[in-house]
Structures are given as structure tokens and as C-alpha cells.
């Protein structure tokens, strides 16, 4: 039988080198446990980081699009909610007038005038709404509420209709004021005439929430409320007959306003569905890329823990062997 024997110097050198290797392995494994990341990405990627860089760039791009999408979703939801309040107000007034149209009298007309005044205030408040620190209906002037108050509007309309004694003439004067650039746009609208820029929410997909408070589909509801609210202005001193005629005409105006608002809401609803679809797609892409990124960068904690325990055991054994070998020297037995 052949026995291999090693000298003390060789054994000492082997134990010392093995001790250094195990300590290095333990330090590497400890780092991976504490950071959760692989310690040698260069070896993992074969020195080519382009694939990992591409994943990180795509994740950053999707993250930016996700932030933009979430902000735009909030903006669209707020616009939709505010328009819904105005639309409900126009529809309710239309239905209330229809319900008493056959027996309509001056007292009814005066009640509708007071309600129209309240609804006008509410509509202006809705169009002056904000979300996320930005004005909803001011175009690019997102730091400015777009409309002056209802008192400003009614004061101007009283001047425009003073002296008129026919319901049709009064209504036409109101419409002319809203259509005149020197009327509503100059005296009531404070927002920008430039639409908000489209927002990129996905690769090749944008949405544009460009609805402004000076849009005819929105101002028509203010016009309808104003027509009825004029009946409550004491400076005009309208007769009962004119009030009844204006109320009946206001019913038609309210119906038109309600239809216009529904169309505006439908446009925003289409964008909301687009935002939701792109948001879902972006989330799926982010999940897929994150899994690929984690597979490359993150260490398997179960595997690392097992290796760490094994290395610690080997190191303990090595210490034991080293201690025993140290006691086998000739000096110890002399």
C-alpha cells in the first residue's frame, strides 16, 4: 500500500490558501445575502452589459410613461366628473320644465330662474376645477382658473338685454354676447387659447385632453342657465308673459346643452378607455422586463444561503484540521 505524505510547510501552505479561499467565498456570499444582488455581474453576462442596459432603459421608459398615464388618468377623471355635474344640472332643469310645461305660470318661471342662477354658479365652479395642482379647462394656462364669477357674466348680460321687451330678442342678445369675441371670450374667459400638448402614454400612443372652458359645447350650458337666470334680474323688470316664454325657450336650450355635454363626455370617455388599455399593456411589459432583470441581477436567496451554510461548515472543519495539525509538530512531543 502506498501512503502519500506531505511536509509541514506544504500542509501549512495548503491550509492557509484554503482558509483564504473560504473566507473570500464567505465574504462574497455574505454580500449577496445582504444586498440581494449577484456579486459578479461581469461573469454572469460574459462581459457584455448591453442586454442588461437595454432592459433598464426600457424599464425607465415604461416608468416615465406610467407616471404620465396616471397623471393623465386623474386629469381625465376630474374633467369627466366636473362635466357630469354640469350635464346633470342641465338635464334636471330640462326635465323639471317639461314636467310643468302645460301649466307653466310666472311663479314657476321665477322658481326656475332662481334655480338657474344656482346652477350657473355651480357650472362655473366646475369649469374652474383643478386636479393635481393644475386647472382643468384653461388650456396651457394650467395655473389660472379660466372663468370669472357669475356676477360678472350676469352684469354684462343685463346691459346687453336692457330695454328689450321680447323673449326671442333677449335670448338672441344673450347668444350674440356668447358668440362675440368681445363678449364672453374677453369678459369671462381668462385661460389660454392654446390647447394642452398631447401626452405620450405608450410607444406611438398619445392622448390630448384639450377641452377648454371657452369651447362652445361647454359655454352653451352657461348660456342656457344665463337665459333663465336673467328672469330673476330686477333691473330688467320682465313681464310675466316674457318670463313664461323665456322659460319654455330655455327648456329647448337646456336639451341642446345636455346633448353637447354628453358628446364632450363621450370624447373624454374614449380617451379614458385608451388610457386604461395602454396602462394595462405597460404594466404587463414592466412585469416581464422586471422578471428578466431580476433573473440577471438578483441572487437566489435560497441557493446563496445554502452555499453560505456549506462554506461556514467547511471553514469550521478547516479550523479544526488546522488546530490538530498544529499539535503534531516535533516540538510538542519532545
UniProtKB/TrEMBL annotation:
Keyword Nucleotide-binding in record: no
Keyword set, alphabetical order: Bacterial flagellum, Coiled coil
Segments forming domain Flagellin C-terminal: 260-331
Chief location of this protein within or outside the cell: other
Intracellular or extracellular location(s): Bacterial flagellum
Segments forming a coiled coil: 12-72
UniProt keyword Membrane, yes or no: no
Alphabetical list of SUPFAM superfamilies matching this protein: Phase 1 flagellin
Family stated for the protein in its record: Belongs to the bacterial flagellin family.
Name of protein: Flagellin C-terminal domain-containing protein
Organism listed in the record: Pseudophaeobacter arcticus
Amino acid at each position: 500500500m502506498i501512503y502519500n505524505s506531505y511536509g509541514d510547510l506544504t500542509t501549512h501552505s495548503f491550509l492557509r490558501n484554503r482558509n483564504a479561499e473560504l473566507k473570500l467565498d464567505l465574504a462574497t456570499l455574505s454580500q449577496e445575502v445582504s444586498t440581494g444582488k449577484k456579486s459578479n455581474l461581469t461573469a454572469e453576462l460574459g462581459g457584455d452589459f448591453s442586454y442588461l442596459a437595454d432592459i433598464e432603459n426600457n424599464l425607465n421608459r415604461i416608468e416615465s410613461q406610467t407616471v404620465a398615464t396616471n397623471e393623465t388618468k386623474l386629469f381625465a377623471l376630474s374633467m369627466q366628473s366636473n362635466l357630469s355635474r354640469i350635464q346633470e344640472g342641465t338635464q334636471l332643469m330640462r326635465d323639471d320644465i317639461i314636467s310643468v310645461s302645460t301649466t307653466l305660470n310666472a311663479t314657476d318661471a321665477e322658481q326656475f330662474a332662481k334655480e338657474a342662477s344656482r346652477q350657473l354658479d355651480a357650472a362655473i365652479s366646475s369649469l374652474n376645477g383643478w386636479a393635481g395642482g393644475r386647472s382643468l379647462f384653461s388650456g396651457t394656462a394650467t395655473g389660472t382658473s379660466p372663468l370669472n364669477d357669475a356676477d360678472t357674466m350676469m352684469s354684462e348680460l343685463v346691459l346687453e338685454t336692457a330695454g328689450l321687451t321680447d323673449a326671442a330678442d333677449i335670448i338672441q342678445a344673450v347668444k350674440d354676447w356668447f358668440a362675440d369675441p368681445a363678449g364672453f371670450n374677453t369678459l369671462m374667459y381668462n385661460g389660454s387659447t392654446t390647447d394642452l400638448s398631447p401626452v405620450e402614454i405608450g410607444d406611438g400612443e398619445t392622448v390630448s385632453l384639450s377641452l377648454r372652458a371657452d369651447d362652445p359645447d361647454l359655454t352653451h350650458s352657461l348660456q342656457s342657465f344665463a337665459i333663465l337666470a336673467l328672469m330673476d334680474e330686477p333691473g330688467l323688470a320682465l313681464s310675466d308673459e316674457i318670463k313664461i316664454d323665456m322659460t319654455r325657450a330655455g327648456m329647448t336650450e337646456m336639451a341642446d346643452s345636455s346633448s353637447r355635454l354628453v358628446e364632450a363626455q363621450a370624447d373624454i370617455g374614449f380617451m379614458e378607455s385608451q388610457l386604461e388599455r395602454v396602462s394595462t399593456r405597460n404594466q404587463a411589459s414592466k412585469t416581464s422586463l422586471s422578471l428578466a432583470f431580476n433573473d440577471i441581477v438578483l441572487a437566489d436567496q435560497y441557493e446563496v444561503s445554502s452555499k453560505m451554510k456549506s462554506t461556514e461548515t467547511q471553514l469550521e472543519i478547516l479550523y479544526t484540521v488546522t488546530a490538530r495539525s498544529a499539535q503534531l509538530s516535533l516540538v510538542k512531543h519532545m
